[in-house]
Amino acid sequence: MGMEEMVRRVESYRCRQVVVTGGEPLRAEELGELLERLKESGKFLTVETNATRYRRITCDLISISPKLANCGQKDKARRLNVEAIGEFIAEHDYQLKFVVEAESDLEEVEEILSGLGRVERNKVMLMPQARTQEEYHRRAPQVAQWCIEKGFRFSPRLQVELWGRRRKK
């Protein structure tokens, strides 16, 4: 889909907010132009990223989902870029979302946060790691408890709750 069609399609919906996500949007060369065009049309823009790379962009909220060791990516340098996260946080309103599975994941979250300096804990969300609805329902209460204890927010994973492993929803 070309730029004109993307902008026209978004503008055809009666919405005030647009979330740009899917894969890693910062890799798309056209992202800057798309965001500028959508902003010009008055949209509130959220960009979801893992922030493994920094790029100056226009958005109202940067939603950063750093990958923890539990994601299976062994190369820490490829899954986590604390400097890029810090730059995004310095320039935008932000939220940080971490997928957690075990209590040991909280140590890694705290390590990342300490590397970022001053992070507002109410802008940090924890989400239960789960591929099935059963896993989700088993882990969610514990993750919610960790949020209460640490001063974080709980973020549900609606796609897991509704569809489990099924893709392309």
Secondary structure elements and their pairing?
Layout: H1 3-12, E1 17-20, H2 31-40, E2 44-49, E3 61-64, H3 76-79, H4 82-91, E4 93-100, H5 103-116, E5 124-128, H6 133-150, E6 153-154, H7 158-163
Parallel strand pairs: 1-2, 2-3, 3-4, 4-5, 5-6
CATH evolutionary superfamily: Aldolase class I
CATH architecture: Alpha-Beta Barrel
Q: Which segments are poorly predicted (pLDDT under 50) over 5 or more consecutive residues?
A: none
How many strands, which pairing sense, and closed or not: the largest β-sheet?
6 strands, parallel
CATH topology: TIM Barrel
What is the CA-atom radius of gyration, in angstroms? 17 Å
Overall number of structural domains:
1
State the total count of DSSP E strands: 6
**Beta-strand share of residues:** 15-25%
Principal-axis shape: globular
- Strand arrangement across the biggest beta sheet: 1-2-3-4-5-6
Mean pLDDT: 91
Oligomer: single chain
Helix and strand element order:
HEHEEHHEHEHEH
Describe this structure as you would to a colleague:
- It is globular, with a radius of gyration of 17 Å.
- The longest helix is centred in the C-terminal third of the chain and has 18 residues, at 133-150.
- By secondary structure, it is an alpha/beta fold.
- It has 7 helices and 6 strands; from the N terminus they run H-E-H-E-E-H-H-E-H-E-H-E-H.
- The protein has one domain: TIM Barrel (Alpha-Beta Barrel), CATH 3.20.20.
